[in-house]
Amino acid sequence: MDDDWGDLDGFVVMKMCFAFVIFMGDLLF
């Protein structure tokens, strides 16, 4: 397994989820 790709993928997914939560929070609250 490629550790670099795994770390990068996890980081991108984490940032996407974080941005999505903030975006939804702005809409709901």
From TrEMBL:
Residue stretches spanning the membrane: 12-28
Annotated keywords: Membrane, Transmembrane, Transmembrane helix
User: What name is this protein filed under?
Assistant: Uncharacterized protein
**Species per Swiss-Prot/TrEMBL record:** Rhizophora mucronata
The record lists the lineage as:
Eukaryota, Viridiplantae, Streptophyta, Embryophyta, Tracheophyta
